[in-house]
Structure formats: C-alpha cells, structure tokens
Design goal:
336 residues; Rossmann fold; Dihydrodipicolinate Reductase, domain 2; 2 domains; disordered N terminus
Length: 336
Amino acid sequence: MTTFSAAAPIRCGIAGAGPQGLFHLARLSLHESFQPLCVYDPAETLLRSVEGRIPHTCSDERGLVEDPGIELVFLTAQVPDRSRLACALLTAGKHVVLDAPLGRDLPEANAIFAAARESGRTLAVLPPRRWDGEFRTALAVVQSGTLGRLRSARHISRQFAVPVPLSASAGSVEQPTCAGEEDVLSRFGPHDVDQLLQIAGAPMRVYCRQDSAISSGENGAVGEYQLLFEFEGGATAHLERSLSSRAPLQTGWILEGEQGGYTHSRCYRATADGELVETPVEPQATDPDAFYVGLAQHLRHAAPLPASVEEARLVTAVLEAARESARRGEWREIGL
C-alpha cells in the first residue's frame, strides 16, 4: 500500500466525466490541498470534455484502481456498477468519496461500508445540499433552541414544467438498476432526506407516494414524490418534490416548534396576550467548499469527516423504506 506524505497535496482521481465529475474537478482545482491527476469514464466522448484540464484521462477503470500515485478517488453517481468499483478502489488502498447516496439499497451500502472497514481507508459520502445557505439558516435556528422542541418540518419544491405526453410519464417506476436509470427519488431524495435528518433526527417510519419519475428525453425529467415521516415523541415531517408541476412552489424549510416557528429567514412566536412577534434571522451563506476543506483536514490532520458514513447509511435505509412504502401503499418502519 502506498504511503503518502502528510504535507503533500492529496493526489486525486475522478470517476465519471459527467456534470458531477466536472463539478469536482472545478472545486478541487481551487484548493492547494488537492492535486487532480486523472479522470476515468468509459465514454470516450465525455473524456474529451476534460482534455487539457487534467494530466491524464482513461476509459479503463484499471487506470484508477492500479495507479499507485492516486490516493483519493471521487466516484460519481453516473459511473456504471459504482458499488463494485468503490469496493475495488478501497481494496486497492484508495480513499473514496461517493456522491450521495451511499448505495441503491441497504445491502449495497453495507457492502461498501464493509470494504472500507476492511481496507482501513476513508470512505466518505458527499451530500452537497448540506451546505446550501437556506438549509444552513434553518438548521442554525433549530440548533439555537429558539423554537424549542421541534413539532413539524416541511419542505416543498415544485418546479413548473411543460406537459409531457402521457406515454412518456405513465406507469410505475421500479428502483434503478444502473447509472442512467434514475428516478426523482434517487436523484433528489438523498439530499432532501439528509437535510431532514440534520434538522429533525432519525424518523421512526415513512409513507411515500411516488409518481412516474424517469427522465424523458427532450422533455426533460418528470415525476414527483411526497414523503411523510413520524418521529419518536410525535413530531412529523413532510418532504415533497416535483419536476413536472403545473404551478411552481418553493417553500424552503418551514419549521414549527413548541416555542415558535420559522420560515424564509424569519422566526415567529406569540406573546402571552396573543400578539405575533416576527424576528429576522441572519441568512447563512452557501458554502460549496466546506466538504472539500473538511475532507482535506480529515485526511491530513485526522479531523472528523464533514459528513459521516453512518449518516449516509441512515439516508439509504430511509429511502429503501420509502420505496417499499410506495410499492405497498402503507407506512414502513425504518431501521438499520
């Protein structure tokens, strides 16, 4: 196994030359702590988009797995058979960062987790929307105790879309089996659920309604999901996302606690005589580099990971229970 100097830049590979891979390449190039060296993608056409921006490209995964100079690999969701490649990289002594989710289901997530434990290398999962300003503002309010014990949390995102032919959107959607077969729950669920877990903790059970949600060619992506959650102690949550709404709606986080409420950078509470008091909240900025900085601190100085793998496993368990709920039409318990 290769030994790396604690003072040297972290030598990186990127698996996947699609939009997520290009995003990683752009962010890593801004930090002296990282040295991007190679991009792998089985599609030669995608590799051409990074030529001249990185020293090496390869269309054979062995170029990453067998390169003794690459210490860390960012593995994007577009790569086929991603879980097998993640395990191969870990076994070869590479640290691995996966774009959320950790796995398509809990057995797959556990297999990757076990490979990391056996190899002794770092496994991290990047939930990019954890550092969105709107979410960070809501989370800071919760953590401040201003609202008291949380009673409910809600987040709705409905994007207007031109109607698509019924033939393109009819029917149920099975769980994706490979890169490219991606439904709306797979694409956005990991990020929405991750934010909810940070705000409200682990739910006990979930109810999911999911309409057709497969990408539909030139019409773009269609479909939607609604997720309802129940927590120990009686708190509830509602997550809803649609890519094919006839009326746009973006609520941001709406939170209600025993001592007040929050929405759109405003806290609300009632006085003893029933008067509504509104207090502005200083908005938090979006920080697109927080994960990368935290990861470098972890690898070079043993700081805690900016997002734990245990949290990523719980997100996978929640989504697995949600899909089972959608299939059965009933509430499902959530457990690891």
